[in-house]
Specification:
14% strand, alpha/beta, Oxidized Rhodanese, domain 1, 125 residues, single chain, 5 helices
């Protein structure tokens, strides 16, 4: 009887506290710009180094999505160890950025948005 009461209490009162933080919406250039300009969000380019060296957004850090899971410590360091600080990921069209967002969220980074492609940044101005 006591165990049942405890389980009921836990499920009603404590479960909401354990729920994940809602993720940020994707493909919203205005939100991405606000996060970068007003909250100093990390702008993360997940394309290859070659693509990044050819053209990139000012202030972006490059970590190719193919090695992102092995370099999560660099992301955490760039955020000052704050996994709840915003991250804006982008690639060429948004596909690799979607994968990167999932990798980051699985690692506990709670505020990640997929800008989409690099050209989508122009839509925020």
């Amino acid at each position: 009887m006591r165990l049942t009461a405890f389980v009921l209490f836990f499920s009603i009162h404590l479960t909401p506290l354990l729920a994940e933080a809602p993720s940020l919406p994707d493909r919203d250039p205005k939100l991405a710009c606000e996060l970068v300009e007003q909250e100093d969000a990390l702008l993360l380019d997940v394309r290859t180094w070659w693509e990044y060296s050819a053209y990139r957004l000012s202030g972006a850090r490059n970590i190719w999505v193919g090695v992102l899971s092995k370099r999560l410590d660099e992301v955490a360091e760039a955020l000052g160890g704050k996994k709840d600080k915003a991250i804006v990921v982008y690639c060429t069209k948004g596909v690799r950025a979607a994968k990167a967002k999932q990798i980051l969220q699985d690692a506990g980074f709670s505020r990640v948005t997929n800008l989409g492609g690099i050209s989508d940044w122009m839509d925020c101005r």
